[in-house]
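Escalated from tier 1: zinc ion holo job.
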Amino acid sequence: MTAPPLTLTPVGIGPAYARPGEAQSCYLVRAGNRAFCLDLGAGALNRLQDHIAPEELELLVISHLHPDHCADLLALRVYMAWGPGAGRRMRVLGPRGMRERMTAFAGQEGWDDAFAFEDMAEGGGEVDLGGGLRLRYREVPHLKPTFAMRFDLGDRSLVYGADCAECAELADLARDTDLLLAECSSGAAPVPEGLAHLNGAAAAGIANAAGARRLLLTHCYPEHDREAALAQARAAATMPVDWAHQDREVAA
Ligand SMILES: [Zn+2]
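Tier 2 regenerated the structure:
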């Protein structure tokens, strides 16, 4: 029996402040008729509904607690507790302390009606999603803790690097993957001292070290030249490189 296709659809590609028309970080993963969401930054819940009714998601995974990766949990809580998702609880896997962070902002009501929160394990871990689908996550250097994640289904795989600095951890997680989605916060510019982010060359370096078969760049600040960043990444990379485009589905 061949496995169903594994695909990635960028829903929001924007960083901490996005360009007009961009939502912040959000990626839809489909495995056959199953759907999973990676991160839910500001504006993402709205755009997500062009692809799926949010309550149909099997799992939402939050990479870290920077607002551009989780802010729309505030809106999704209302949707799930009192809106169209009422009566169902969404499984949400994320860093320890996520629920407390959210309730500190928006109060206690509705969260446990809306969500079944699960903490990620320190350093990394693995979730068997059934049907041959496996999720692995691994801590990467950024806000502590931040987790990159990998889906494997049959002989296909895809990896979302979350936000991170240059590191061996992401290359390890992404070993021989079909598709690596990597942040490119700094475009083609040097990553400012002390910031745990990537530029095009650094993203390509990780993809090369991993032996990834395809690299997609995302999460670029509006002031950077994306053509220059793509050229920089392509010059360094040993595999095809493109920008992630909102709403454009790619197969692993
Ligand atoms: Zn971040």
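The chain has a mean pLDDT of 97.
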